[in-house]
Amino acid sequence: MIETQVRDYRDADEASWLRCRVLGFLDTSYFDDVWRAHPESSPGWSLVSRLGDQVIGICEASPAAHGATIDTIVVHPDHRRTGLASALLDELFHRLEQSDIRQVDAWTRDDQGTLAWYRVCGFEVRYRYLHVFADGEAEMASAAAVSPGLHPRSGFFHADTQDVAVEADLRRRFSRVHACHRFVQDL
């Protein structure tokens, strides 16, 4: 692992934080989860891993009824497979335990490397549904009835199904379908 500093996010990190987040998600199924600013401060945990003056890893988590939810964990592509994500996760776990939180979950789409990483870190899948994106007139017509004069061009849908035939049909009808997994770990 490279020597980095893991610490709380600071406002001065914003530009570097945004670059890390965009580049880190660009080659994943979350490529479209682009933000223009760091979210306003809210209860939770916002950690960064820095190398010099650059943010190269991010871990964001928020309180939830069951404990906490990891909202973002991402590493800049130039620094992947160096242990940064695990170091960020370890620091988050340490802080959650200090806050008496005993369960954490994370939602992620179907990137095989990410799914494997969560499993290696001790998480297990407890729920799964589909993100279905309809793009263009034909896919939107397949997704929803079109009202006269209204011509939808794109849409985002949740398909809460475990039926493999339904999933296969959705994958046949729509060019972009992602399985969204809820990983959970008891601390």
List the helices and strands and how they pair.
Blueprint (H helix, E strand, L loop, with lengths): L4 E4 L5 H13 L18 E7 L2 E11 L2 E9 L8 H15 L4 E6 L3 H9 L3 E12 H8 L10 E6 L4 H10 L2 E11 L1
Parallel strand pairs: 4-5
Antiparallel strand pairs: 1-2, 2-3, 3-4, 5-8, 6-7, 6-8
Explain what the structure shows.
The chain has 187 residues and is an alpha+beta fold. The protein has two domains: 5-101, Gcn5-related N-acetyltransferase (GNAT) (Aminopeptidase), CATH 3.40.630; 105-187, no CATH class. It has five helices and eight strands. The protein has helices at 14-26, 84-98, 112-120, 136-143, 164-173, and strands at residues 5-8, 45-51, 54-64, 67-75, 103-108, 124-135, 154-159, 176-186. It has an eight-stranded mixed β-sheet with strand order 1-2-3-4-5-8-6-7, with helices on both faces. Helix 2 (84-98) links the parallel strand 4 (67-75) and strand 5. The longest helix is centred in the middle third of the chain and has 15 residues, at 84-98. The chain is globular and about 55 Å long. The two termini are 24 Å apart.
State the main characteristics.
187 residues, alpha+beta, Aminopeptidase, 8-stranded mixed β-sheet, 5 helices, globular
